Amino acid sequence: MIDFLPIPAVIERIDRTMPDHLFDFRLASPLEAAPGQFVELSVPGVGAFPVSTAAFGPDRHLFQACIRRAGKVTSALYRMTEGDEVGLRGPFGNGFPLADFTGRDFLLVAGGLGIAPLRGLLQALLARRERIGEIILLYGAREPETILFREELEDLADAGMLRLSFSVDFSSELPWAADAFICKVGLVTELLKNLRFSPENTVAAVCGPPSLYSCVPEELASLGIAPERIFATLERRMKCGVGECCHCVTAGIYICREGPVFTLEQLRRMENAI
Ligand SMILES: Cc1cc2nc3c(=O)[nH]c(=O)nc-3n(C[C@H](O)[C@H](O)[C@H](O)COP(=O)(O)OP(=O)(O)OC[C@H]3O[C@@H](n4cnc5c(N)ncnc54)[C@H](O)[C@@H]3O)c2cc1C
Ligand code: FES
């Protein structure tokens, strides 16, 4: 039986210094969600929208989400302040099948706000650090100022927890000392050129706008990663999140229920999915 009642939550903190604000929500009851799953966040009297988990607090009462102001509901959320109440329904969708990939290397490719769900995945990978191989994160943003979680990611790279490279679409010059990281001007696919990694042992996860997930998974396959080990998250207009409203149906598949995470092997069989 599906529970349609949202979990009450209070906005505990809003980091407005991030171009897409980072919200901490304190939940009335704990939420168990796997990386790649999503929740429906409701603003009372306005509506709801799907949002990925950017990270969780240790007791699962703290849910963190990085949210872009896109339209009606996200604009209403941006007008709210600490102490205001929202609701969270979920989790929905399948998430990344982490347990299947013990011992593997991970290559994460993020574009723009796609870093939000991949940060959730990264957090889960770091929690099982001794059971996996190398982690590589390639992250492309429009401009240097729009890179999200930059300091946090650089600290992790400095501590040797992951190999990190940034790309920005526009910049007259690269604005930071790039000793530890590769920084390129161009699309995130630039970072795949001459990348040192072992495709036969790698699991890849791609998250970003349609322009990213329409080409990067095939590019990764051409580098030798098996299609069943290349994952991409699809973004669709979702309403109910549970296979009831048909808003998300693509190639006869309920993206909210069967996805939003799919392997390239599955995507190749889904007409017009990417
Ligand atoms: C699984 C999933 C996870 C998501 N995670 C996040 C997240 O972590 N952070 C975040 O900021 N956003 C996320 N989104 C996107 C977010 O749900 C949408 O931007 C949502 O529509 C915002 O609601 P709104 O009422 O503010 O905007 P709306 O009024 O619904 O829409 C604003 C504009 O965006 C367009 N639009 C809305 N949704 C889509 C879509 N799916 N595809 C193409 N165009 C669309 C509309 O046509 C309109 O022009 C996620 C979406 C999905 C499906
Ligand atoms: S969002 Fe309603 S069926 Fe998928």
Quick structural overview:
With 274 residues, the protein is α/β, with parallel strands linked by helices. 18% of the residues lie in helices and 30% in strands.
The gyration radius over C-alpha positions equals: 18 Å
Give the fraction of residues assigned to helices: 10-25%
What is the strand tally?
A: 14
Tell me the series of helices and strands, N- to C-terminal: EEEEEEHEEHEHEEEHHEHEH
Shape: globular
Say which molecules are bound, naming each kind only once: flavin-adenine dinucleotide, FE2/S2 (inorganic) cluster
- Find the structural class using helix and strand composition: alpha/beta
Strands across the major sheet, in which order? 4-3-7-1-2-6-5
Spans where pLDDT lies below 50 across 5 or more residues:
none
**Mean pLDDT value:** 90
Number of helices: 7
Task: Explain what the structure shows.
This protein has 274 residues and is α/β, with parallel strands linked by helices. It has seven helices and 14 strands. It has helices at residues 72-79, 115-127, 150-158, 210-213, 216-222, 255-258, 264-267; strands spanning 7-15, 21-27, 38-43, 47-52, 55-56, 62-67, 85-92, 105-111, 135-141, 163-168, 182-185, 202-207, 230-233, 261-263. It has a seven-stranded antiparallel sheet with strand order 4-3-7-1-2-6-5. Strands 11-10-9-8-12-13-14 form a seven-stranded mixed sheet, with helices on both faces. The longest helix is centred in the middle third of the chain and has 13 residues, at 115-127. The protein is globular, with a radius of gyration of 18 Å. It starts with 6 loop residues before the first strand and ends in a 7-residue tail after the last helix. The model has no long low-confidence stretch (mean pLDDT 90). Residues 38, 47, 49-52, 65-68, 70-75, 113, 116, 235-238, 260 line the site of flavin-adenine dinucleotide. FE2/S2 (inorganic) cluster binds at residues 238-241, 243-248, 254, 256.
